[in-house]
Amino acid sequence: MLTLRGVSKLFAPNVGLHPLDLDVPAGDRLVLLGPSGSGKSTLLRLIAGLDDPDTGEIFLDGKLVNRVPPHERGVAFVPQRAGLYPHLTVQENLAVGRRTPVPTADPFGISHLLDRFPHQLSGGEKQRVALARVVTRQAGVWLFDEPFAALDPVFRSEIRHDLHLILGNSLHTILLVTHDPIDALALGRRVGVLGDGRIQQLGTAEELADRPNNRFVAFSVGQLSLIDGRVCGGDPSAAKFVSEDGSVDVTIPPALARRVATQPTPNLTLGIRPEDVHLRPPEEDSPNGANFRGWLVISAEPVGSGWLLTTARGRCRVRVGWSSDAPPRVGTPVNWFSPVDRCLWFDHTGRRIEA
Fold it and tell me: CATH code for 2-221?
């Protein structure tokens, strides 16, 4: 079990990791998702003993380890780069730090590389060796710092798949950090969102997607489209959200209108997921959702078996999930619709409001 209490590490007044508490039960697999500078790598380095915290205590299996050197903590650490010893072969790299022989199992398919030196390996092969070095060690806690960041998309997908299979059968306590929501959702039993040096929310992937605490969490977990606007109309039963440029309007639930009325400003932000945007027949507005009239398709990216479209009107952008084989052509104006019960709402501070 991994436990942090009030752990912090600041490099400037608002740069680094602010005091945080974290519990990762034995055998859990937690992925922390956050942008560059959010404190992800700093957190792992503190746990591994490579840096000292400014404040707080770190416990491994109930033992305080703040003053325990890294090699005695029972922690295996994979940095962003493979970190292999250039003068050692793959076999010798795998044996570093081990008191027992290297297992003969080959979870990452590197048996044919054992006699090679790091300079003879591709980027994907180096990362496979680095991951194999961790998963074959007798360490109670595994730490992974952006393990796929240096890989191209093909290698990234392959190694993510391999690691997912291995972690799924592991009883180790695992903490992985990444900036990629695909990595987080694919590998984590639980997912935490780290922003501004603080854990913004912690839960399952489904909980974070359906009930994000704030717009930062919602944007981090999915490709959420955010549209700023305000509530118009004094009567809560007929109140509407209207975007700043007037291109989007939504009749909002009365309960939401009453909550906004208690705020110091009627400003509101609408959040919409790509999978919740649908094609709408021309000249047919829906009273039960967000209507997007005449939005231009400005890009279409293949994603899995479908497409991710980006549509625009004025300064606003909305991403649309498209499962058909033939998406609208770029430059085509299209009318869209999103059901009101699938809309997310955020107040002027960025906090989510229940509709």
Answer: 3.40.50.300
